[in-house]
Amino acid sequence: MATFVAQSTCMLSLKRVPPILCSLTLLILAAGCNTAGTTAVVKKEGPAEVAKQPTPAPAPAPVAPVDLVDHKFDRQPFTYDSTKKYIYLTFDDGPMGGTKDCMDVCRQLGVKATFFMVGRHAADKWGKILVNEIKQSYPQFLLANHSYTHANEHYKFFYQHPDFSEADFLKAQDSLHVPYKIIRLPGNSAWVRKGEDKSSHLVSAVCKRLDSTGYNVIGWDEEWNFTRGQSFPVQSPAKIASQMDYAASGHSHLKNHVVLLSHDRMFRTPAYKDSLTKFITIMKQNPNYVFETIDNYPGLKF
Prior knowledge:
Blueprint: H1 2-12, H2 19-36, H3 47-52, E1 85-94, H4 99-109, E2 113-117, H5 125-136, E3 141-145, H6 155-160, H7 162-176, E4 182-183, E5 191-193, E6 196-198, H8 204-212, E7 216-217, E8 222-223, H9 237-248, E9 257-263, H10 270-284, E10 289-291
Parallel strand pairs: 1-2, 1-9, 1-10, 2-3, 4-7, 8-9
Antiparallel strand pairs: 5-6
Helix pairs in contact: 1-2, 4-10, 7-8, 9-10
């Protein structure tokens, strides 16, 4: 009805218009009249359209930082059994891939071990977790100092600058919260205990500095070597066990005490983790062997 009225009004207004213009004008007005009564329609979203809208992803939960805990152990006097020979299983350079595997093997077989760790290797969350787990596992596991930078793999420069190398060890002690003043030098075997300083000319200066501040320096008697590059064990479990037997027969730095150097990354694969298991199993077959942590090595300063 509204459309009809609008069209009639338009027709009446054209009575006095010339015929030629009338047709054109009529077409234009008709178009305008036909749209004048229309109403704009706004499409509303129904349930289906609303459901299609993407749901914002929830914000990720904040990751709690891991702090290295400070463990000071109340050491009890250690009594040595003169009928036993003490084996000190030590792992260098961690925390790295393989640290957890070594801990698992030692726990399964019930033996003690010492982890000489590098400060910068514990800079990330996973490294800190491993360091804390080792410290919390004392007296089965002991954390000890293996420098902060591992001499940046430039041993000669590192030891020719004793101020620099001493500061590096002190930084590792502080950053790792190492419980005792027990150090192993990167790339060099030396011994500093009560009344003893056995070291090469290259490391003599830093050993004297460490000795003067109450530190012990631990070397090794036998080494389980690894391949360059991939860091897999060189000797078989039976071979390294034979080397340990030889050292225990009177060829170690201290009689009846044998220190084995190895690296935890050597045992990061199932096959070589099994090598560690086999070696420990061989050694445990001798009832005279006892596995101990290095803080129970004789003659250390506390």
